[in-house]
Amino acid sequence: MFITLPAKITSWSQDQLMDGYLQNRLGILGHAIENAGKTPGDDTIALAVRYISDVSEIVFTPRQFSRILDLYPYAKAKVADYGWGDTEVEEMVLDVVANALLGTRWPLGVDDCDVTAFIERLRFAAEKAMPLLS
Length: 134
What we know:
134 residues, mainly alpha, 8 helices, 0% strand
């Protein structure tokens, strides 16, 4: 779930915007439109839930994670289209959980973030959110 800051966008000329960035965004938009409404299979959801647990020790039921994923239609469509095992899908799933629970994305190496502390905060938020997801 990569977000480019508005100030960065406004610093580019239209030529710079067209130099790869906009083509990429239009490709993402096209894929999203083509796959809107697709739903991941039960096996894919189960693998995503296991992955989230392996990485963060947060244990969602498939239903709980599906409810979160429903809030992110493009991520849901991408998970459904790509299936499990694609690193981009794995990253997207972690971003969805981080965004739903903490309003942020999963930390990247360049973030200079204490990932252990981040996961602790994420687990705390998940614990508080469980009644909403059940």
